[in-house]
Specification:
Elements: H1 3-11, E1 14-20, E2 29-30, E3 54-60, E4 70-74, E5 79-86, E6 97-99, E7 104-113, H2 115-124, E8 128-129, H3 135-146, E9 193-194, E10 199-200, E11 205-206, E12 212-213, E13 240-241, E14 247-248
Parallel strand pairs: 1-5
Antiparallel strand pairs: 1-2, 1-3, 3-4, 5-7, 5-8, 6-7, 9-10, 11-12, 13-14
Bound molecules: calcium ion (CA) (2 copies).
Keywords: Receptor
Pfam families: Lectin_C
Domain C-type lectin: 1-84
Length: 256
Protein backbone atom coordinates (compact mmCIF):
# COMPACT_ATOMS: atom_id res chain seq x y z
CA UNK A 1 0.00 0.00 0.00
CA UNK A 2 1.49 3.32 -0.94
CA UNK A 3 1.65 6.13 1.56
CA UNK A 4 -1.08 8.12 -0.05
CA UNK A 5 -3.54 5.26 0.24
CA UNK A 6 -2.37 4.46 3.76
CA UNK A 7 -3.01 8.04 4.77
CA UNK A 8 -6.37 7.91 3.11
CA UNK A 9 -7.45 4.79 4.97
CA UNK A 10 -6.03 5.98 8.25
CA UNK A 11 -7.93 9.22 7.98
CA UNK A 12 -11.12 7.72 6.65
CA UNK A 13 -13.05 7.55 9.88
CA UNK A 14 -16.79 7.58 10.32
CA UNK A 15 -18.81 7.26 13.48
CA UNK A 16 -22.53 6.99 14.13
CA UNK A 17 -24.07 9.80 16.12
CA UNK A 18 -27.62 10.04 17.43
CA UNK A 19 -29.09 11.87 14.44
CA UNK A 20 -31.51 10.14 12.06
CA UNK A 21 -34.52 10.62 9.81
CA UNK A 22 -35.90 7.14 10.24
CA UNK A 23 -39.35 8.38 11.22
CA UNK A 24 -39.99 10.92 8.47
CA UNK A 25 -37.58 10.97 5.56
CA UNK A 26 -35.88 14.31 5.36
CA UNK A 27 -36.75 15.33 8.91
CA UNK A 28 -33.61 14.70 10.90
CA UNK A 29 -34.04 14.40 14.66
CA UNK A 30 -31.75 13.53 17.56
CA UNK A 31 -32.65 10.01 18.66
CA UNK A 32 -36.35 10.03 19.42
CA UNK A 33 -36.69 13.70 20.21
CA UNK A 34 -39.23 15.69 18.22
CA UNK A 35 -37.38 19.00 18.16
CA UNK A 36 -36.16 20.45 14.91
CA UNK A 37 -32.42 20.75 14.63
CA UNK A 38 -30.96 23.90 16.13
CA UNK A 39 -27.49 23.08 14.80
CA UNK A 40 -26.39 21.28 11.64
CA UNK A 41 -23.00 20.53 10.21
CA UNK A 42 -23.61 18.71 6.95
CA UNK A 43 -20.83 17.91 4.53
CA UNK A 44 -21.14 19.46 1.11
CA UNK A 45 -23.97 17.85 -0.85
CA UNK A 46 -25.36 16.11 2.24
CA UNK A 47 -27.79 14.90 3.31
CA UNK A 48 -28.52 13.36 -0.08
CA UNK A 49 -30.59 10.30 0.87
CA UNK A 50 -28.57 8.40 -1.69
CA UNK A 51 -30.20 5.07 -1.04
CA UNK A 52 -33.63 4.50 0.43
CA UNK A 53 -32.13 3.58 3.77
CA UNK A 54 -29.85 6.57 4.16
CA UNK A 55 -31.59 7.54 7.36
CA UNK A 56 -28.79 7.59 9.91
CA UNK A 57 -26.03 10.11 10.37
CA UNK A 58 -22.27 9.77 10.74
CA UNK A 59 -19.69 12.31 11.74
CA UNK A 60 -16.67 11.96 9.47
CA UNK A 61 -13.03 12.72 9.55
CA UNK A 62 -12.63 11.76 5.94
CA UNK A 63 -9.71 12.80 3.87
CA UNK A 64 -11.02 14.84 0.97
CA UNK A 65 -14.19 15.79 2.76
CA UNK A 66 -14.94 18.69 5.00
CA UNK A 67 -13.50 17.79 8.35
CA UNK A 68 -15.97 17.06 11.13
CA UNK A 69 -18.93 17.20 8.78
CA UNK A 70 -21.96 14.94 8.79
CA UNK A 71 -23.33 12.56 6.17
CA UNK A 72 -26.53 10.56 5.99
CA UNK A 73 -25.78 6.91 5.38
CA UNK A 74 -27.41 3.53 5.28
CA UNK A 75 -28.45 2.64 8.84
CA UNK A 76 -27.25 -0.91 8.30
CA UNK A 77 -23.73 0.13 7.37
CA UNK A 78 -21.21 -1.02 9.95
CA UNK A 79 -19.09 1.76 11.37
CA UNK A 80 -17.70 2.82 14.71
CA UNK A 81 -19.74 5.04 16.97
CA UNK A 82 -19.71 7.49 19.84
CA UNK A 83 -21.78 7.07 22.99
CA UNK A 84 -22.72 9.86 25.37
CA UNK A 85 -23.88 9.50 28.94
CA UNK A 86 -25.21 12.00 31.38
CA UNK A 87 -23.69 12.30 34.82
CA UNK A 88 -25.00 13.85 37.97
CA UNK A 89 -21.48 14.84 38.84
CA UNK A 90 -18.67 16.18 36.69
CA UNK A 91 -16.83 12.87 36.88
CA UNK A 92 -16.86 10.23 34.21
CA UNK A 93 -16.33 6.49 34.57
CA UNK A 94 -12.96 5.15 33.51
CA UNK A 95 -12.70 5.00 29.74
CA UNK A 96 -15.07 7.91 29.22
CA UNK A 97 -14.02 11.47 28.49
CA UNK A 98 -15.72 14.44 30.05
CA UNK A 99 -16.88 17.10 27.60
CA UNK A 100 -16.77 20.46 29.26
CA UNK A 101 -18.90 21.73 26.40
CA UNK A 102 -21.88 19.55 27.23
CA UNK A 103 -21.06 18.34 30.75
CA UNK A 104 -21.53 14.77 29.53
CA UNK A 105 -19.23 11.77 29.20
CA UNK A 106 -18.23 10.52 25.77
CA UNK A 107 -16.69 7.29 24.58
CA UNK A 108 -15.58 5.97 21.21
CA UNK A 109 -16.53 2.41 20.39
CA UNK A 110 -14.47 0.80 17.64
CA UNK A 111 -16.61 -2.30 17.07
CA UNK A 112 -18.18 -1.62 13.70
CA UNK A 113 -21.94 -1.73 14.13
CA UNK A 114 -25.18 -0.77 12.44
CA UNK A 115 -26.84 2.36 13.79
CA UNK A 116 -29.32 0.34 15.85
CA UNK A 117 -26.64 -2.02 17.16
CA UNK A 118 -24.60 1.03 18.13
CA UNK A 119 -27.51 2.65 19.96
CA UNK A 120 -28.23 -0.61 21.77
CA UNK A 121 -24.61 -0.89 22.86
CA UNK A 122 -24.74 2.67 24.16
CA UNK A 123 -27.94 1.96 26.06
CA UNK A 124 -26.38 -1.12 27.60
CA UNK A 125 -23.77 1.20 29.05
CA UNK A 126 -26.25 3.72 30.42
CA UNK A 127 -25.71 6.00 27.44
CA UNK A 128 -27.06 6.82 24.00
CA UNK A 129 -25.50 7.79 20.70
CA UNK A 130 -23.89 11.21 20.97
CA UNK A 131 -25.82 14.39 20.25
CA UNK A 132 -24.30 17.59 18.93
CA UNK A 133 -25.90 20.95 19.61
CA UNK A 134 -23.14 23.39 18.71
CA UNK A 135 -19.72 23.88 17.12
CA UNK A 136 -17.99 23.33 20.45
CA UNK A 137 -19.46 19.85 20.79
CA UNK A 138 -18.81 19.07 17.13
CA UNK A 139 -15.17 20.02 17.62
CA UNK A 140 -14.98 18.01 20.83
CA UNK A 141 -16.23 14.85 19.14
CA UNK A 142 -13.90 15.43 16.24
CA UNK A 143 -10.97 15.72 18.63
CA UNK A 144 -12.15 12.59 20.41
CA UNK A 145 -12.11 10.62 17.16
CA UNK A 146 -8.52 11.73 16.69
CA UNK A 147 -7.60 9.79 19.84
CA UNK A 148 -8.82 6.52 18.37
CA UNK A 149 -6.18 3.84 18.42
CA UNK A 150 -4.27 5.40 21.28
CA UNK A 151 -5.37 2.70 23.65
CA UNK A 152 -8.03 0.56 22.06
CA UNK A 153 -5.98 -1.77 19.84
CA UNK A 154 -9.12 -2.47 17.91
CA UNK A 155 -10.94 -3.64 21.01
CA UNK A 156 -13.40 -1.78 23.14
CA UNK A 157 -11.82 -1.58 26.52
CA UNK A 158 -13.74 -3.47 29.14
CA UNK A 159 -13.71 -1.09 32.02
CA UNK A 160 -17.29 -0.26 32.58
CA UNK A 161 -17.06 -0.97 36.28
CA UNK A 162 -17.84 2.31 37.91
CA UNK A 163 -14.89 2.65 40.22
CA UNK A 164 -14.91 6.41 40.05
CA UNK A 165 -16.40 8.22 43.00
CA UNK A 166 -18.39 11.34 43.43
CA UNK A 167 -16.66 12.21 46.66
CA UNK A 168 -13.64 10.96 48.54
CA UNK A 169 -15.36 10.20 51.84
CA UNK A 170 -13.28 7.95 54.04
CA UNK A 171 -10.02 9.23 52.55
CA UNK A 172 -7.62 11.23 54.69
CA UNK A 173 -6.64 14.72 53.68
CA UNK A 174 -7.93 18.23 53.85
CA UNK A 175 -11.40 17.96 52.34
CA UNK A 176 -10.63 14.29 51.63
CA UNK A 177 -8.23 13.41 48.84
CA UNK A 178 -8.62 10.67 46.29
CA UNK A 179 -8.18 9.93 42.61
CA UNK A 180 -11.69 10.60 41.43
CA UNK A 181 -11.05 8.51 38.32
CA UNK A 182 -9.97 5.37 40.15
CA UNK A 183 -11.35 6.08 43.60
CA UNK A 184 -8.01 5.35 45.26
CA UNK A 185 -7.18 7.35 48.40
CA UNK A 186 -3.68 8.77 48.29
CA UNK A 187 -3.16 9.67 51.94
CA UNK A 188 -4.66 6.72 53.72
CA UNK A 189 -8.00 6.34 55.43
CA UNK A 190 -9.86 8.08 58.18
CA UNK A 191 -10.62 6.17 61.36
CA UNK A 192 -13.45 3.78 60.54
CA UNK A 193 -12.44 3.19 56.93
CA UNK A 194 -10.03 0.76 55.33
CA UNK A 195 -8.49 -0.48 52.10
CA UNK A 196 -7.22 1.30 49.00
CA UNK A 197 -10.66 2.78 48.46
CA UNK A 198 -11.15 3.57 52.18
CA UNK A 199 -14.44 1.79 52.46
CA UNK A 200 -16.34 1.77 55.72
CA UNK A 201 -15.28 -0.91 58.19
CA UNK A 202 -17.06 -4.19 57.43
CA UNK A 203 -18.49 -6.96 59.60
CA UNK A 204 -19.13 -4.97 62.78
CA UNK A 205 -15.60 -3.67 63.10
CA UNK A 206 -14.65 -0.07 63.79
CA UNK A 207 -11.78 2.26 64.59
CA UNK A 208 -8.37 2.80 63.03
CA UNK A 209 -7.73 0.15 60.36
CA UNK A 210 -11.02 -1.44 61.45
CA UNK A 211 -9.03 -3.23 64.15
CA UNK A 212 -11.73 -3.14 66.84
CA UNK A 213 -14.93 -5.10 67.07
CA UNK A 214 -18.36 -3.71 67.94
CA UNK A 215 -19.64 -4.88 71.30
CA UNK A 216 -21.39 -8.23 71.27
CA UNK A 217 -24.01 -6.46 73.33
CA UNK A 218 -25.04 -3.94 70.69
CA UNK A 219 -28.75 -4.12 70.01
CA UNK A 220 -30.66 -4.95 66.88
CA UNK A 221 -30.37 -8.04 64.77
CA UNK A 222 -27.14 -6.80 63.16
CA UNK A 223 -25.44 -5.60 66.40
CA UNK A 224 -23.92 -2.88 64.24
CA UNK A 225 -21.92 0.04 65.58
CA UNK A 226 -20.62 3.36 64.26
CA UNK A 227 -17.49 2.63 62.21
CA UNK A 228 -15.63 5.57 63.72
CA UNK A 229 -16.69 5.66 67.37
CA UNK A 230 -17.97 2.15 68.01
CA UNK A 231 -21.27 3.47 69.41
CA UNK A 232 -23.98 0.89 68.95
CA UNK A 233 -26.38 1.99 66.23
CA UNK A 234 -29.49 0.31 67.59
CA UNK A 235 -29.10 0.63 71.33
CA UNK A 236 -28.04 -2.18 73.63
CA UNK A 237 -29.08 -5.74 74.12
CA UNK A 238 -31.11 -6.39 77.29
CA UNK A 239 -29.06 -5.97 80.41
CA UNK A 240 -26.43 -3.66 78.90
CA UNK A 241 -25.99 0.10 78.86
CA UNK A 242 -23.66 2.81 77.58
CA UNK A 243 -22.87 4.14 74.14
CA UNK A 244 -20.95 1.03 73.34
CA UNK A 245 -23.04 -1.30 75.49
CA UNK A 246 -20.04 -2.71 77.28
CA UNK A 247 -21.52 -2.06 80.74
CA UNK A 248 -23.90 -4.41 82.49
CA UNK A 249 -26.82 -2.66 84.21
CA UNK A 250 -25.50 -3.82 87.53
CA UNK A 251 -22.35 -1.82 86.99
CA UNK A 252 -20.15 -4.67 85.96
CA UNK A 253 -17.98 -4.10 82.96
CA UNK A 254 -17.96 -6.52 80.10
CA UNK A 255 -15.06 -5.11 78.16
CA UNK A 256 -14.18 -7.16 75.12
CA1 LIG B 1 -33.22 9.76 4.68
CA1 LIG C 1 -25.52 10.70 2.13
Amino acid sequence: MNNFLADFVASNKSYWIGLNDRKVDGQFRWLDFEDELSYERWAQGEPNNKSRDDNCVQINNNWGRKLKAWTDDNCFAKVKFICERYQESTLCPVGWTLSYVSGTCLKLYVTESSWQEAETTCENHGASLAMIQNDGMNNFLSDLTATEGNSTDGQDREEEILIYRKDCSGCLGNGHVCDTRTGLCHLGCEVGYHGALCEACPNNTFGANCSRKCSDHCGGSTKACNVTTGECLYGCADGFVGDMCFSGKGGCLFEV
